[in-house]
């Protein structure tokens, strides 16, 4: 029994270490919560199926491999502010650097669409 517990603990530690190396080598610093949030939103529009879960998980993995987390957050913020509307958001929409940040994310999403769906 004790041997089994030690083996399981060692396996979990090795698995965690391997996951950390993979995350560092890909530059994907997206948290689990951010990934889950994306997948849930994706599944809401794609259907609540196992196939949809697989495709949506693939999609955020592709986006994370293309777009650094900081740029993802910036683009998501710009998009969410743009949905509110009003005078200030119209000023944001005319700013070229902000449009480019959103366009960069849209390109990553398009690549994810091609690879995963």
What does this molecule look like?
There is one protein chain. The chain is an all-alpha fold. The protein has 2 domains: 1-28; 31-116, no CATH class. It has 6 helices and no strands. Residues 1-25 have low confidence and may be disordered.
Topology of this protein?
Layout (H helix, E strand, L loop, with lengths): L1 H25 L5 H15 L3 H17 L2 H16 L2 H7 L2 H21 L1
Helix pairs in contact: 2-3, 3-6, 4-5, 4-6
Give a nutshell description of this structure.
It is built from six helices and no strands.
Task: Report Rg.
Answer: 18 Å
Taken in chain order, the helices and strands follow as HHHHHH
Q: What kind of sheet is the major sheet?
A: none
Which outline best applies? Answer: globular
State the domain count: 2
- Annotation field: number of helices: 6
Report, as a whole number of angstroms, the end-to-end distance: 45 Å
Structural class: mainly alpha
Query: Could you estimate the helical fraction of the residues in percent?
Result: over 70%
Overall average pLDDT: 80
Strand content: under 5%
- Please state the oligomeric state of the protein chains shown: single chain
Provide keyphrases for this structure.
single chain; 117 residues; mainly alpha; 6 helices; disordered N terminus
């Amino acid at each position: 029994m004790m041997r089994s517990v030690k083996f399981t603990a060692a396996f979990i530690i090795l698995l965690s270490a391997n996951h950390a190396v993979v995350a560092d080598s890909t530059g994907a610093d997206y948290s689990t919560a951010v990934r889950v949030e994306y997948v849930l939103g994706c599944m809401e529009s794609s259907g609540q199926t196992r196939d949809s879960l697989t495709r949506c998980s693939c999609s955020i993995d592709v986006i994370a491999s293309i777009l650094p987390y900081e740029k993802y957050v910036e683009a998501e913020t710009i998009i969410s502010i743009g949905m509110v509307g009003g005078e200030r958001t119209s000023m944001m929409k005319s700013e070229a650097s902000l449009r480019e940040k959103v366009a960069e994310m849209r390109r990553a999403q398009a690549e994810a669409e091609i690879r995963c769906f």
